[in-house]
Specification:
Blueprint (H helix, E strand, L loop, with lengths): L10 E3 L3 E21 L7 H12 L5 H5 E20 L8 E6 L20 H8 L3 E5 L18 H17 L11 E7 L1 H12 L6 E5 L8 H8 L2 E2 H4 L1 H4 L4 H9 L12 H5 L5 H10 L1 H6 L17 E3 L3 H8 L7 H9 L4 E2 H6 L14 E6 L3 H4 L28 E6 L12 H14 L6
Parallel strand pairs: 4-5, 4-6, 6-7, 7-11, 11-12
Antiparallel strand pairs: 1-2, 2-3, 3-5, 8-9, 9-10
Helix pairs in contact: 1-6, 4-5
Length: 446
């Protein structure tokens, strides 16, 4: 079936085919039972550190300690989505994959604008297998509406937005996409996988299949992950993207040191008087939060989220990024710099509710695939095969118990890959594993 609407310019994927994509702003109404937390407003980076210390302490459950009550949160928000379909459709019953990113990313995680889109999940799903995709900026992220980072931006509210988008796809009411989809699959990464899981637990007929990437139900390693992030206020860590400082003001501040923020290669003589070499400065820009200070100065970088409130946080620098997301020797070193300069924040509410999903999705009957990198630090502590139990093949495999009625359950461990699967050299191998699983389960486009 052809879609009779205007499409954005084609994005080519080699010589195989071309996907057609449309960026859409979708109004949604959310309703969710969120937690009411006793967390004081963060005044600076020291307060962010205090919050992380409390959250990761073994003395107790800080989420429960801070929880005062529950309240129903409602509101109207805009969700930014990207809908893609094959240039040439061979059937009348297409399947749409709803793609939900995790913390620290936006929807470009699925169509990464790096190295000529060679890391694009959407290219593989759409051009090679004929799926449609709807990648979303989660509520509060990217080009979607901002919201209160403590009281609104929690897992239940973000799942509510995901549910509303899903129902629009099923009912044919998604703006500019006049097609009712009978087959809707949810593909999530990390926190986005958690939202997809929560959707299946609460609304078991909303999804026809689940793909949970960068996921397990072992939360043992979340505390060291949060500690490794050394969280800072996003507006202070990348002020050009997330604060209210202008590039002109930043340049003026640098000029007092005799340094040009726009072109450090022209300032080596000025730096010499500080006994600092240009190479050392380049290392600082690549590996410390000095580089974050300058992020957003180049017009090609991803959209900014200006003047964020202090409840939006981010990890401190590229080192924290690498520790949590990437496996050395198995990613392009320049992708780390790209990922750090274009990262997105996470919120207090998200961190407090990251483990809020029920232990089971007892009524979900569709197929489930968990695909996690073997060296995932966040959900496997660096080795997903280190179960300590000869009868358990992998840490993610234990989640089979969470889906007692699932038609099929598969836990696939991607080799030579850490948490951010899509940023590794062998990402396309993982993409193909997912598409083949869905096709085998009768969820391909037809």
């Amino acid at each position: 079936m052809q879609f009779p609407f205007l499409l954005a310019p084609f994005v080519l994927a080699g010589s195989i085919a071309a996907k057609q994509c449309l960026n859409i702003t979708v109004p949604v109404s959310i309703s969710a039972r969120n937690g009411v937390f006793n967390i004081p407003t963060l005044q600076g980076n020291s307060d962010a550190t205090t919050f992380a210390q409390n959250l990761t302490s073994i003395r107790g459950n800080f989420t429960q300690e801070a929880l005062l009550d529950y309240a129903t949160v409602t509101g109207e928000y805009n969700i930014s989505v990207k809908f893609c379909k094959p240039d040439v459709e061979n059937g009348t019953n297409p399947t749409v994959q709803v793609l939900t990113h995790g913390l620290g990313f936006d929807k470009t995680y699925w169509d990464l604008p790096f190295n000529n889109y060679n890391y694009s999940y959407i290219d593989v799903a759409v051009d090679h297998y004929g799926f449609c995709t709807l990648s979303i900026d989660r509520l509060g992220e990217g080009n979607s509406s901002k919201a209160d980072p403590l009281s609104v931006l929690q897992a239940p509210a973000e799942m509510s937005a995901l549910y509303e988008l899903t129902m629009m796809l099923r009912n044919g009411t998604l703006p500019d996409v006049p097609q009712a989809f009978s087959k809707v699959v949810h593909v999530g990464h990390s926190f986005g996988a958690g939202l997809s899981y929560l959707l299946a637990a609460m609304y078991p007929t909303a999804s026809d299949g689940l793909i949970l990437t960068g996921f397990s139900q072992n939360g043992s390693f979340l505390a060291p992950t949060v500690a490794s992030w050394d969280s800072k206020l996003a507006r202070l860590n990348q002020p050009l993207r997330f604060g209210n400082i202008s590039y002109a003001a930043l340049s003026e501040a640098f000029s007092t040191l005799g340094v040009s923020a726009s072109n450090l290669t022209k300032t080596s003589d000025s730096l010499a008087k500080f006994n600092i070499t240009l190479g050392e400065i380049q290392q600082a820009l690549q590996t410390t939060d000095l580089g974050d200070l300058l992020a957003g100065s180049h017009p090609s970088q991803l959209p900014h989220m200006a003047d964020l409130p202090s409840g939006y946080l981010t990890w401190v620098d590229a080192g924290s990024n690498q520790y949590a997301f990437l496996l050395p020797k198995y990613y392009d070193p320049s992708i780390l710099q790209f990922a750090e300069s274009s990262k997105f924040p996470y919120t207090l509410g998200e961190l407090l509710t990251i483990g809020s999903a029920p232990k089971m999705a007892p009524m979900f009957k569709g197929p489930v695939q968990i695909l996690t990198g073997r060296q995932d630090a966040i959900y496997c502590g660096g080795d997903c095969l280190a179960t300590g139990d000869p009868a358990l093949a992998s840490i993610p495999a234990k989640s089979k118990m969470a889906f007692p009625l699932a038609r099929t359950f598969e836990a696939y461990i991607q080799p030579d890959t850490a948490h951010a699967i899509n940023l590794h050299y062998n990402s396309t191998a993982a993409f193909n594993v997912i598409q083949r699983f869905l096709t085998r389960e009768g969820l391909g486009s037809s």
